[in-house]
Amino acid sequence: MTRSVLIVEDDEMIREMMDFTLTQAGYTVASASSGEAALELARRMKFSAILLDIHMPRMSGVDVLRALKRTGRPPVIMVTANRNAETVGEAMRLGCSGYLCKPFRPEELVQRVKASLAPRAA
What we know:
Number of helices: 5
Shape: globular
CATH superfamily: Response regulator
CATH class: Alpha Beta
């Protein structure tokens, strides 16, 4: 079964590194550079997981997470340099399944995605 991941990241170099890393790990990848573009892709396509940056122009990752929560969504991993406890807490309350702080190693990214897709024990 093909696993598809949506990367939402406004920094082109980081987005390309994430895309390359996940593609090499066997995932099908789509990407968006803004929250608005991410929501449009999420409406049109089904993803296994979403990697979501917090600090983006116009629409923050937390706003995107809020909008996704209303529509039902796959696991969302927040990927950000933001270590603010209040922001982390808000993302967790909104149901993100993980938090990955920049900078990170490519292997850690793959492991976080794998963990978010693993079946949960009852």
